[in-house]
């Protein structure tokens, strides 16, 4: 499947932003960020988190449009999907060790894994209908919620009456809307403005494109590396 450097660079930019955000979170967790920050309530951090997740999901939707246009079959799809799902399970296990009271049961990788399957199923739907479906998914959680969806085993749907206590939470509703809009936008761009994705990059943008091609590996490694460095620095400081 051909690479699209501009799409890779956009994904790479999301990765860098995420790494900076997580580094600040880790500094705060170890007490090195002063004054102490509230990453769960302060809009400066919560808005950034929402923007980072949105950029990731939009890029995932764009990538799905590119893959479908290139004729990606189900076999190749499931091979990539298994990598994402496996990494999601590792994130759950790792977070359970570090945050046993707020471990991640349905974070961004869990969400992407489920949304990719759903997106593949609705891919034949016309683009305008995908945009409309996305808008409906965005609004629905604000119109109806039920306590049934408040448990850790059902909150993946997103129709919760209260936000769960967890370090990362990306439920299907409303977040699938962003991937659907990415899928619909990608189909439109590939049909009418393919140069927007297939065009070249200046030399300064190539590192971002390279990083974007290895986004899953970077995602899985960056936090253990950052936390390990901070633990080593804390030991030396003590």
Describe the protein in words.
The protein has 238 residues and is an all-alpha fold. The protein has one domain. The chain has nine helices and no strands. It has helices spanning 5-29, 43-69, 74-98, 108-122, 127-143, 172-192, 195-198, 206-213, 215-237. Helix 2 packs across helix 6 and helix 4 (108-122) packs across helix 6 (172-192). The chain is globular.
What low-confidence regions span 5 or more consecutive residues with pLDDT below 50? none
Radius of gyration: 19 Å
Structural class, from helix and strand content? mainly alpha
The outline comes out as globular
List the keywords.
238 residues, 9 helices, 69% helix
How is the secondary structure organized here?
Blueprint lengths: L4 H25 L13 H27 L4 H25 L9 H15 L4 H17 L28 H21 L2 H4 L7 H8 L1 H23 L1
